[in-house]
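Fold description:
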Amino acid sequence: MSATILVTGATGNVGRETVQALSRAGNIVRAASRTVKPTATGENIRAFLLDYTDSGTYAAALKGVASLFLVAPPLDAQAPAKLLPFIKAVKASGVRHVVFVSALGVNLNEQAPLRVLEHAVMDSGIGYSILRANFFMENFSTGFIAPTIRHQRGIFLAAGEGKTSFISTKDIAAVASKVFAAGPQGKEYNLTGPEALDHAQVATILSRTIGQEIRYHALSEDAMLQGARDQGLPEDVVQYLGALYAVVRAGYMATVTNDVESVTGTKPIHFEAFARSNNSFWK
């Protein structure tokens, strides 16, 4: 009998890929987000409404669910306050396995919102797996960096010369599928791509891929944060963004692990291969 797995954040970069990976593996998938109505979206995929801040949406989404793919709202310092009531409801509903998407290195900062949520999941009494992923490659194609690449042919960040072992959400989804199949083992996985690149190297790869020059503009932190404010981002999000790129500048995101290959049996995607397969996003 196929398992029923609830995927939160199903309209986001990692959620979309995970829905497809779990569906291909034969699972019944509930694709949950705050903006969809519960209508059929595929043979074994159904969309469900779920809003962490509205407990009235919990019961229908969780009913009969065996496992949960849990994604926190991005760049949200208030994520623990929003998710803790939902995690309690997950426990009460009888879910047996939570796979929580966290971030590489948060275990080094006990005050980090995602670290607080890691502890909440681990202490909940539910079987768990933690996926600590590095920055997504897809940030450059469908995420927040993509518009400036398309329209200004530039990457404008306060990343300095710090390197990042970017990972594709396809690899995160592949790991999640294998971890769900294996069942809860109380493990934490540090997920990275196969190499660490700085943003100037990323710009060079993108330039070569699309045949047009893409430049990396190394902003000061103040300039990046003011730009985020000018785009209308709330101050707590602006400060969260600043903290993330301070870690990049310090070199902490350059770690390369073999956890993707050890779980899936396949090496993670190189950034150059990602760029080739996604070049239409930048033309």
Q: What stands out?
A: The longest helix spans residues 79-93. The mean pLDDT is 95. The radius of gyration is 19 Å. The beta strands are 4-7, 28-33, 40-42, 45-49, 67-71, 97-103, 127-133, 154-157, 187-191, 215-218.
